[in-house]
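Thread title: Can someone regenerate the structure for this chain?

I was given the following input by a collaborator and told the matching structure tokens would be attached. They weren't. Posting the sequence so someone can regenerate them.
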Amino acid sequence: MSEAQLRVGDARQRDVGRGIARIDQKTMQKLGISAGDVVEIVGKRTTSAIAWPAYSEDQNRDMIRIDGFTRKKRGCGHKRICRYTSDQS
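Best answer:
Regenerated them for you:
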């Protein structure tokens, strides 16, 4: 299982309610995931989201963009660093 710790940012309006996590290319490669794969998001609780490529301005910033509903489900507040894992090999 691969793991990364990322800073949390707000999802853009077009992504709200879609269950996606915008992750930069470097982190996706580290986790061994591709667009459309499901990632586990660990905070006080655990939830999952669909990995999707980060916007160009978010590349190499060690951040993830998820909506408020997903943040609330995992129990990890805005701009906190939480763990993101993938069981992909």
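The longest strand covers residues 2-10.
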